[in-house]
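User: What would this chain look like folded?
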Amino acid sequence: MEALVAILIGTLTGCGVYLALRDRTFPVVLGLTFLSYAVNLFLLVMGRLTIGKPPIIVEGVTEYADPLPQALVLTAIVISFAMTAFVIVLSLKAHLEMGNDHVDGKHKP
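Assistant: Here's the prediction, encoded as structure tokens.
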């Protein structure tokens, strides 16, 4: 199972980097989204899922679940949503002003 998750994270990262290096704005936005998915999955997997363990201090319990990865992923989801919305609006504005959707800002003749 660890190999499958590692392959999935690697595939998402590879696709995200490939799409982020494209010359159009929509693949760049999609690539940034794939990269954020890969980072979220990586953070969640690194937290080690523990079943039946309390995330808070209770008397008589020696093992606890770590709530930090879930909090980091939840924060990252909110930030990536805001970033994606901002980049989409920015790319639409650039497309309307320049007449094309190239990321280098060159006008078509």
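The mean pLDDT is 88. If you want, I can go into more detail on any region.
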